[in-house]
């Protein structure tokens, strides 16, 4: 059972999410928050697996609420939902610690998939949100330079990090690098562990910030 906290300042939106989620046997809404401050408090109280977080909310916006939620010990995954697909929101949400970013206009089945993916530790971006949005808002090192923090990675692990940053799934990475999916999954776990990252979303940000992957290239 995946427990979910819904944070949105519109009561009808929260109710709609609750109705949708409660049609699923493996999803359960444990609380609803009408602003960012309440989301932080309820996340601390209920310890949900996933927080559905709106960006524009009163008292405390979703970005700052996300930062505070993920700063807690053993934090939940945060899936940011918004009506805005502006580039800055995407990067800011990922930098704040979100594990995924979806537009509220996505079909219900995609939202359900997003919740399950985030709970499983996979990064998730809306189909309309591609890596160019992240590229535009990160400060990368000059080409050819590697940040000291990446020296702990093997050559194969760097290959895996590049593929993750390009948005490829484990299956796609396995096909590209001629590896089994199980091996790719192990490599991804080691990359996250060595770099002290929570999930693939953070790995994407690090890859661009350190120059492992660059705009329009790899």
UniProtKB/TrEMBL annotation:
CDD domains found in the cross-reference section = LuxR_C_like (cd06170), REC_NarL-like (cd17535)
What GO biological process term is on the record, naming one? regulation of DNA-templated transcription
Under the heading Pfam families, the entry gives: GerE, Response_reg
Where the record annotates domain Response regulatory, the positions are 3-119
Record keyword Transport present: no
Reading the lineage from the top rank, the first entry is Bacteria
Full protein name: LuxR family two component transcriptional regulator
A single GO molecular function term of this UniProt record? DNA binding
The chain residues annotated with the modification 4-aspartylphosphate are 54
Q: Which InterPro entries match?
A: CheY-like_superfamily, NreC/VraR/RcsB-like_REC, Sig_transdc_resp-reg_C-effctor, Sig_transdc_resp-reg_receiver, Tscrpt_reg_LuxR_C, WalR-like
Q: What organism is recorded for this protein?
A: Motilibacter rhizosphaerae
Identify the keywords attached in UniProt to this record, alphabetized.
DNA-binding, Phosphoprotein, Transcription, Transcription regulation
Provide the HTH luxR-type domain boundaries.
146-211
């Amino acid at each position: 059972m995946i427990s979910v906290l819904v944070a949105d300042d519109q009561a009808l939106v929260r109710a709609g999410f609750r109705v949708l989620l409660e049609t699923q046997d493996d999803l359960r809404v444990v609380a609803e928050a009408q602003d960012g401050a309440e989301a932080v408090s309820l996340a601390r109280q209920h310890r949900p697996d996933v927080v559905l977080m709106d960006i524009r909310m009163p008292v405390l916006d979703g970005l700052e609420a996300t930062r505070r939620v993920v700063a807690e010990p053993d934090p939940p995954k945060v899936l940011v939902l918004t009506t805005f697909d502006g580039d800055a929101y995407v990067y800011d949400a990922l930098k704040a610690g979100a594990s995924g970013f979806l537009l509220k206009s996505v079909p219900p089945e995609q939202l359900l998939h997003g919740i399950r993916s985030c709970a499983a530790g996979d990064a998730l971006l809306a189909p309309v949100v591609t890596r160019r949005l992240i590229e535009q808002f990160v400060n990368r090192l000059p080409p050819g330079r590697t940040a000291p923090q990446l020296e702990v990675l093997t050559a194969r692990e760097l290959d895996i990090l590049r593929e993750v940053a390009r948005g490829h799934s484990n299956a796609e990475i396995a096909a590209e690098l001629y590896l089994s999916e199980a091996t790719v999954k192990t490599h991804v776990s080691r990359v996250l562990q060595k770099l002290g990252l929570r999930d693939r979303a953070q790995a994407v940000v690090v890859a661009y910030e350190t120059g492992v992957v660059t705009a329009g290239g790899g």
